[in-house]
# Entry
Amino acid sequence: MMNIAVAQSGGPTCVINASLVGVFKESLKHPEIDAIFGSVNGIEGIIENHLVDLKSIILTNYDMELLRQTPSTVLGSCRYKLPDWREDEEVYKKIAATLKQRNIGAFLYIGGNDSMDTVNKLSEYFSQIGLDIKVIGIPKTIDNDLCITDHTPGFGSAAKYVATTMHEITRDSIVYSIPSVTIVEIMGRHAGWLTASSAVLHSMGETAPHLVYVPEAEFSIERFLTDVRQEMSKHKAVIIAVSEGIEVPEGVQSGVVDNFGHKYLSGIGKHLESTVRTEIGCKVRSIELNVMQRCSSHLGSKTDIDEAEEIGAAGIRCALSGETGKVLVFRRIEDVPYTVVIETADAGDVANQEKFLPKNYINSAGNNIRRFALNYFLPLIQGELDLIMDNGVPKHFAIHESVLK
# Structure
């Protein structure tokens, strides 16, 4: 008999709890697994020996269904960067001590690029000291920028929210007779996947978004203003999707960075709004979608939620088969009918890497997404959950705050 531990890390998504359900539900199927521990606040919970017994918290199938539709990380999250174990071993000793004390034979970490760095470092360290604890990475990120995998859990639901919100903004913006420009700022530090997903509206016959700017295409204010004027000659209301990570003048964004050296990005929408107001002089507004992109589970993609649960379950099977230092990934077989398989990749090949929007997805002018690229996005946003409601509002699963302290 052995126990397992699971943790969630990085930015929340609509489906990271569905992956937790996958880990939990699959673990119940294997008699060799006894306790299922949840680590509070990611790897920090392992370091501090702050774990909770998930079997005492997730009690019924109803609880699991609620958890599947609940956004964010029910166990809490962190952005903790492990040092190189060759230079500073102390924190690794604490982690190993916790796992050995709890008789944990497998640790599953649900997270993004930086979390896979933790998976890689821990598996290397355990191998070095001869500790037989399997370490497996379960991917998540709305940015969709993990290497090797076709897409990441969390992206499809965020893309569905972005496209739906863009659709609604378009309806709102065309009601007035005066010309207008609406700039929608969308998350994406270096990769424009989420911003590009707004173009799925083109598959419905919509002309909006009329302009789409992603970090992978060269950007200039002069060209932007020319683009806007050209679109204003064709459309009364011009709708623009812009990634938070496009190149902008120094000082537009804060310059503050997290533990992994990533900048906190915000402000490009307001900057472009001010520029349009000054240079063109029309009615203009900017809208920053902000955290709603990653927590609007009422618009979650059923495809995304189902896949998140499946890849969490696959993580348990991977660990029980004897693998370690692996990340579960999707490989797409077909767009129509949409078909994917789950495989494994080495965590070292995923950690601290980024997957960018393919250049051929972007039009030659660098201001929109090509039609064929929509075949990539469309399968990922399909389907809706039959949500459990409470007084007209989607019901969420929550662990009492006293348990997480």
Observations:
- Residues 155-173 form the longest helix (19 residues).
- The longest strand covers residues 326-334.
- The mean pLDDT is 94.
- The chain is about 35% helix and 20% strand.
